[in-house]
């Protein structure tokens, strides 16, 4: 019994025109919430598909829960939410869910028993309306996403893989999803999800792996990654915003290497050799009313931009990440 | 295997529940009835109508041939004004024809019949009219002329009209019976119809459900359901489940159709009589042994699996309905090629072409049942063809599952033939 939920060793996938994933190696410990981060087109979905043996890697191997992923039986122990929702449009929700559960080795009777609980929990079944009896294409997009989510978790998988779960979710459903991920972790399950939304990743993940252009840029625990990125970052906030005098101080390259105005606060990276104390002094001299002066680890967002920027994000890629 | 079963169950139940299935299953037999009864009714109507067309007989024979023909055509109630007879001299014929032509053009009469010395000699008669292309009417007129000319000749030989009536009255009907190695078995017409029905049913099922499979693969691709399923089971299981599930659907439909078809055949006499078709010669139902029936089912199943696998593979290579039609064309063409040969093969079921067509795997499922129904086929030949078909089936499924596995998750442009062959080789 290994303590790794997923052990990926040097997988690559080459298509006719380009290399989608190159020599990717990563380990996901059991019970972790693991984020697979990267800009669009970085190879996240291809990696996940290889992980699930939906497509076979050209090289390398994948071990899931201690078994090779070519072992069909191991697929029963994981749940997968694809990036684009895949449901039979003309099928009744309840029958579709039973079918999906049967594919994971659940008996129809057991599936029926569990479906009610899930439908009620995600408010798809209320005293006045049971959406389980409707056809999939009668449901709104948000409700279809919930159905897909139930389909992913109905068989109580040990490992849950979510491809871009937050895309297209409204704040309420996004919160519900976060709660569910936390709940899954509490139950000792392993959750892997891909995203290009760094805020979600930073809040939810124990560990992350950043990939760009099909290659791993860095991986590790979130705290480790942030610590490694140094503590040369200061978060600043001023009453009334950044005035001209403050802007002048922040433009001083002997003191500040880079300032990123986040509107509510400014993320400042100190120049090499500059003391944070000196920055505070200069700022106080401007007379601006300082609301926040905090030495912080850089945000995942910033690390991401730095690392992926160095590898080079292709033009036109997502502005989110 | 529980998961394969789950896929088969879904494919079967979801299809059987659709309105399309219920409607086509119920209306199939109705359509069949209509196809059988309507032409018979039409023929009967035409035969009746034939006697009602107004016409003029221009008789230059010099005897009362025209009047006799008119009497024969109108039956016992002569002189109802439907047929007018003008006895003329040869010299007056041209102007009489002009007048008749004018009457036809003014729609006073439908046409006119010219009887001359050629008619008396038993060679010729002329008819001109608006209804000249109505086969039923012309046949009626022709046989009336023949009968009257024959009677006329016999009378001139001195025979008594009553005696002539007795002598010329025949109602021969050809009863056909098929003889096989096992002895007599049913009527020739019966087995022909059966063979044709089986071939046509197979063809129809393959076209209908082949397209159905194609579209369902396409739907799974475009809605990305395929990805969810393939994360749980191997693509081969999805393919197999789909093919078996749909085969079961079409078998269900066929059982309903065939049962109602058999009932229809049994009660076809009363049905036709009610429709006003009158007595029809009875066609005895061909005796079909259980063995032959099983062979039909075997040919159907193998043929279905063969074509279904190919249609599924075609569906996996495309992403839109338009592309799907194109991708299905080569497969459909194989089917159409088989059905085109049904007519010629039924006429000559023992020649080389018929034999070769009943051996080739793509046409065997349609042509062999047809041949079997019409001529005896040796068990050895049947066995060999079935074995060959089974092998081709396995090859088709192997080939299809390769394409399916890769194609299912391929989006974007359609693959070229070279890419396709790479898919088959690689996976």
Overview of the structural elements:
The complex is a heterodimer of chains A (321) and B (427). Chain A has two domains: 4-226, P-loop containing nucleotide triphosphate hydrolases (Rossmann fold), CATH 3.40.50; 231-296, Alpha-Beta Plaits (2-Layer Sandwich), CATH 3.30.70. Chain A is built from eleven helices and 14 strands. Chain A has helices at 44-51, 72-75, 93-103, 108-121, 141-153, 171-186, 198-204, 222-228, 244-250, 276-285, 300-311; strands spanning 4-14, 19-29, 33-37, 59-64, 67-68, 78-81, 159-163, 190-195, 207-212, 215-221, 233-238, 256-261, 266-270, 290-296. In chain A, the strands form three sheets. Chain A has a six-stranded mixed sheet, sandwiched between helices. In chain A, strand 4 (59-64) and strand 5 (67-68) form a beta hairpin. The model of chain A is unreliable at 312-321 (pLDDT under 50). Chain B has helices spanning 2-16, 19-50, 65-74, 93-105, 117-120, 135-156, 161-168, 188-222, 225-230, 235-266, 268-274, 290-316, 321-340, 342-347, 352-359, 364-374, 379-407, 417-426; strands spanning 55-59, 83-87, 111-115, 126-129, 179-180, 183-184. Chain B is elongated. Chain B has 18 helices and six strands. A four-stranded mixed sheet of chain B has the order 2-1-3-4, sandwiched between helices. Chain B has a two-stranded antiparallel sheet with strand order 5-6. Chain B has two domains: 2-42 and 181-426, no CATH class; 53-168, abc type-2 transporter like fold (3-Layer(aba) Sandwich), CATH 3.40.1710. With 427 residues, chain B is mainly alpha-helical. In chain B, helix 8 runs antiparallel to helix 13. The chains are: A alpha/beta (321), B mainly alpha (427). At the A-B interface, helix 3 of A face helix 1 and helix 9 of B.
